[in-house]
Design goal:
This protein has 262 residues and is α/β, with parallel strands linked by helices. The chain is 27% helix and 25% strand. Bound molecules: zinc ion (ZN) (2 copies).
């Protein structure tokens, strides 16, 4: 069984909770430690139960409390050597790094396979994560400028798919953002538009897929309804439930696969 909740999503902080049977982990720690503890409490999870943190990349909306949370709850950080350096963790002499290599499977606990999938984004060594436990696949791909073949192939058949649906290109073009920032967001190492997200969802959804969560929505250059509509139109009546993650509150804790009591 995999259980998952997006605790927070957007440019003011990102974190996802994921549990394999009774082993709990976080993906990114982009809120303050206190806020993360609050979000975990809201879904009934004790922060002391977190066994590790999977870090996608070094941008501040993903790492804000990673050092503090990791230390406070003795949860090691799984990330690449380059991201560890760029996130300032080496400088802080952070203990508890478990190095991973982009593109190479790792297993934090037996039976769980995790593929850190390289993604095009303006960070030193950014990855998405594809989790496989028993027959359940869960994918989280956020912070990427465009969808690579590898991302589309790896995400295919996910029971739960968490995909970045960052901006509406029209809203972004009209926004007050400086030209350079617009270029960065729209660029090949920026963020996925609603349309690009919808195309990825369309490619990745199979009859296995139960749930899609659109994540990392821009508060200035997007609206949840536009993001949702774009993906739903693309899916054209296909089955999975599609929802939008929020910056302000966690999604429900979704469960996939069979729960085995031990
Ligand atoms: Zn981000
Ligand atoms: Zn980023």
């Amino acid at each position: 069984m995999i259980a998952c909740s997006v605790l927070a999503s957007g440019s003011r902080g990102n974190s996802t909770y994921i549990r394999f049977q009774d082993h709990s982990f976080l993906i990114d720690c982009g809120l303050s430690c206190r806020a993360l503890e609050g979000r975990l409490a809201a879904i009934g999870v004790d922060p002391a139960s977190i066994e590790g943190i999977f870090l996608t990349h070094e941008h501040s909306d993903h790492i804000q409390s990673v050092h503090t949370f990791s230390r406070r709850f003795s949860a090691p950080i799984y990330t690449t050597e380059a991201t560890y350096q760029a996130a300032g963790l080496a400088e802080k002499k952070h203990v508890g790094l478990i190095p991973i290599v982009s593109g190479k499977l790792f297993s934090p606990i037996s039976g769980v396979d995790i593929f850190p999938c390289p993604v095009p984004h303006d960070a030193v060594d950014p990855v998405g994560f594809i989790f496989q436990y028993e027959d359940v696949r869960v994918s989280q791909v956020t912070d990427l400028g465009y969808v690579t073949e590898l991302v589309a192939c790896e995400a295919k058949g996910s029971r739960l798919l968490l995909v970045e649906s960052n901006h509406d290109p029209q809203m972004l073009k009209m926004s007050q953002y400086p030209w350079e920032l617009k270029q960065r967001i729209m660029g090949r190492r920026g963020h996925l538009s609603n349309q690009a997200a919808a195309e990825l969802v369309k490619r990745a959804v199979t009859e296995q897929t139960e749930q899609v969560i659109l994540t990392h929505l821009s508060e200035e250059n997007n609206l949840p309804d536009i993001a949702l509509m774009t993906t739903l139109q693309k899916l054209n009546g296909q089955v999975p439930v599609v929802t939008v993650a929020s910056q302000r509150e966690p999604t429900p804790l979704f469960t996939f696969g069979v729960t085995v009591s031990r």
